[in-house]
Write a structure and sequence with these properties.
It holds the Pfam family PAP2_3. This is Inositol phosphorylceramide synthase. The protein has one domain. Helix 4 packs across helix 9. By secondary structure, it is mainly alpha-helical. Helices cover 68% and strands 0% of the residues.
Length: 264
């Protein structure tokens, strides 16, 4: 009898592991398909360079009317020492997708209760950004003539883009919004919210560094970062209003409620 009970427990354990593995693979395929569709959608939105340059001039003028720092002046000042450029380009090219992927893996396996909300925020922000790419093509600062920008990825490498606009699968006219900044903010929010220990506050540096990198390398305007952050903040707010995406630690909440009732 004991042997049969042990075999039954082992079988149930094996089925549970198989079920968890199947669920993880399913989630991986879902997110890979969704982000792949987002990347391909960005490519399809690449087709109106005249509008992209017109919008670039409009964004530049709006930033100056808002007294935002001049990106070209900042880049010129930073280039007095160009030792940072290669590292900044590497950060721009190599960190964005690996960081959001590592964040998703961490949330899914170690903060499972938060996964439905994080997934919804990532998918919702990607969908909103894609709509903006179609509605508002925008040439990045490095492609804006007459303002003295240096295309640092071309000059120093590595580059995330083809030599000429329209080549390759990456849309160079999709500067608005910057999900580099938006998803960096999401990562910082998630780590600070769900992790434990004082070290988690270091994550707040990620969106700050990302914003500086995308601006100083002339890949984005300030307002691109603002727009990307606003989309993520709006998605976080929207998901906080949906009970099915409640990501609070109910165990701790329940324990606190029981302590309060005992104290009363």
């Amino acid at each position: 009898m004991r042997r049969w009970a042990g075999e039954g427990a082992t079988l149930r354990g094996d089925r549970r592991v198989t079920g968890l593995a199947f669920a993880a693979v399913l989630q991986f395929l879902l997110m890979a398909a969704a982000l792949g569709a987002y990347a391909y959608g960005r490519h399809l939105a690449d087709g109106r360079p005249e509008r992209a340059y017109e919008h670039a001039r409009a964004v530049w003028g709006l930033e100056r009317s808002l007294f935002l720092p001049d990106e070209s002046s900042l880049q010129k000042g930073a280039l007095r020492w160009d030792g940072w450029v290669r590292a900044a380009n590497e950060y721009y090219v190599r960190v964005h997708f690996p960081a959001i992927t590592a964040f998703m893996v961490w949330v899914y396996f170690w903060r499972r209760r938060a996964w439905p909300r994080v997934r919804a925020v990532i998918l919702g922000s990607a969908a909103a950004a894609l709509l903006v790419h179609f509605a508002y093509p925008l040439a990045p600062p490095r492609m804006l003539p007459g303002h003295g920008f240096v295309d640092l990825m071309t000059a120093y490498g590595p580059s995330a883009y083809a030599t000429e606009p329209g080549q390759g699968i990456t849309n160079q006219f999709a500067a608005m919004p910057s999900l580099h900044v938006g998803w960096a903010l999401l990562i910082a929010w998630g780590v600070i919210r769900y992790a434990r220990g004082r070290w988690r506050w270091l994550a707040a540096a990620h969106p700050v560094v990302t914003l500086l990198v995308v601006v100083l390398t002339a890949n984005h305007y300030w307002l691109d970062g603002v727009a990307g952050s606003a989309i993520v903040v709006a998605a976080l707010w929207a998901t906080s209003r949906i009970p099915a995406l409640d990501d609070r630690d109910r165990g701790r909440a329940g324990a606190s409620a029981r302590r309060d009732s005992v104290g009363a």
